[in-house]
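Minutes, project check-in
Item: structure for the 71-residue chain
Input as provided by the requester:
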Amino acid sequence: MAARSTASVTVCLAAQARLAFAQDDPERAARLQSAADGLRRRVGLRVWPTLRQAEADLIARARQTLGTDRF
């Protein structure tokens, strides 16, 4: 945050989401990934091409684990 780089913050949030999922906390993973997505949308950023598939997979796995209602 101190660097004022929204892109870096969103990458960090997405990385924390992957870590949360790996630590068997899909609800936290979904919240963190949603925060990254929302921040990107607000400032008009897109996910880096090399990360798009990994982030889409994380969301799909979290949705499947939590169920649509909880997700």
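Outcome recorded: The two ends are 27 Å apart (CA to CA).
No further action items on this chain.
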